[in-house]
Amino acid sequence: MAKIELNRNPFIENALKSRYPQLAVFIVMLVGYIFAILAGLIGTPVGSHNFSIVFVWIAWWAVLILVAVPFFGRGWCAVCPIPLPGEWLQRGAMLAPPNKRPKWLNLRVPKMFRNIWLQNISFLLLALFSSVLLTTPNITSIVLAAMLFAAIGLSTIFERRAFCRYLCPVGGFIGLYSQTAPIELRIRDKQACVKCEGKPCYNGSEVGYGCPWDVFPGGLTKNTYCGLCMECIRTCPHDNIAVNLRPFSADLAKPTTRMDEAFKSFIMLGSAMIYAGVLLGPWGMLKDAAYNVGSNSWFVYAGVFLAIIFGVLPGLFSLGIYQRQNNIAFKQRFASLSTALIPLGMMFWVAFSLSFVLTNASYILTALSDPLGLGWNLFSTANTAWQPMLTSILAPAQTLALVGGLIWSARTAQKAANESWTSSMPVIVYCFLLTSVMLWLLL
Hints:
Elements lengths: L3 E2 L4 H8 L1 H24 L8 H22 L11 H8 L25 H12 L1 H4 L3 H21 L4 H5 L2 H9 L5 E5 L2 H6 L4 H4 E2 L2 E2 L21 H5 L5 E5 L13 H22 L3 H8 L4 H26 L8 H9 L2 H20 L1 H8 L21 H30 L4 H18 L1
Antiparallel strand pairs: 1-5, 2-5, 3-4
Helix pairs in contact: 2-3, 2-7, 3-17, 3-18, 4-7, 5-9, 5-13, 13-15, 13-16, 13-17, 13-20, 14-15, 16-19, 17-19, 17-20, 19-20
């Protein structure tokens, strides 16, 4: 499949260049985000009837995992409200051309933090407390507010979107799996970038801001670190930026060489499997340990959680790919072959989310009519009875997702193995074993 430049269409091009459509979505999202915070603090403590729980962890999660990430990659980042107030403070404007004088401190993020290790850690922290986070509205509100204020605080200290690039737990998740999406932003002509003076796409100009994600479009080769904010389309003086429709997983043809990205794959795989066991499994003792935060059983649960992610999963993977005679450094081979786990991990999350979302989707109608649990009935759906949805197709859909992910990962493993001059078979066997475990957990 050849790439299709979507913004060759004048309507799409004008829509992407204009700030007003994006701003309108931003405002709606920001209002909804603030309402979710307030709902969690002042609404009912019953999670299944509180807007903050239902719309964040059921409705938004369903859109993110089942639609946005698989098909639009970083598309959510293009409309995410979290960095918005911080950017307005940082720029000193909402839509006006940027003032060249730096706002606030405008420091460069220290080199040691210019990676996704902090994102890995922040995701793990949320994962360890997820059982409480998914059921307790005021905890969800505290986390949402903390993310908003962290983004604002970092914007007053560091340049660009420091929170989004290096700390946001959702951003790291999306960045990893955006490599599989059929949407990308790339340049049309490399020579136009070479000859361009001032690089306004990166540094900004009188018509727009420099890339908030600290990415030079001329060097962009994968989706992981591009937030699809569309600023470069607005500032490029040569009309050299294209938004392309491309084959799925095009970025995976070039395996990663970074250990922070490699470990993100194991974090996401392990978290999906543990979530399936805790939230969907029949083991009461496991549920009690996960929910009783601070208890002795919870500390055991947390220790096992981290051991699986940082010990068992990468350890077994390392044993499988170890080859004494291979001339490529083990660290490089480990990172490269871990690329094969990305499609499998994404399908693990799709399969888990299908079960979690379809089981709880009926709560959306209830919370829509009575978002605070105060007895309202705005749309006459407040008394909708809980009922799982599409139960007859759930198991086949999950099986299809997991088997499809296994095949997808096997093909990716073959390409990565060719780059590393090694066999793909250990990685394929590893993926098969993990898929079997996930099938057992879900079905």
